[in-house]
């Protein structure tokens, strides 16, 4: 598999929509849950969240995430940004900072159904790391779920799994109080400098 990973810029908005809103829904997250405070997120409609993300693709420097392409077709998305730009994460009581390093955070993966099982999420993670590196990040963190020897519900594995992060060179720092599919999530980090 040769996944081409590109920053999610305004010229790729149609591809962002194809991944994050494959059909109209009043519940579409648009990957804004970590970028907004809980209150702001809850008050916004799906359309407003989409407009907010579109604005980020147009104006944010660096872009708010990366897209992966297989044979020219968009296969998936990864939300990656400096932790300080992720309001809900900076105020989280369950995923607290380990230290003062200005890390970038990988918070979400979305892979289109027809591309699942092809290593897209792993390729997106590598692309997210390179995106962070190119924009001066000293380290990248993720907050994946520990499958604890079992299988994680795919809907709840949007944060990634520890195995995937370990294969990408991340190391375990600390178990958090956050859970996904009733299993603990860990803070994992890959140093870039």
UniProtKB/TrEMBL annotation:
N-acetyltransferase domain mapped to chain residues: 3-193
Name of this protein: GNAT family N-acetyltransferase
Entry-linked InterPro entries: Acyl_CoA_acyltransferase (IPR016181), GNAT_dom (IPR000182)
Pfam families recorded: Acetyltransf_1 (PF00583)
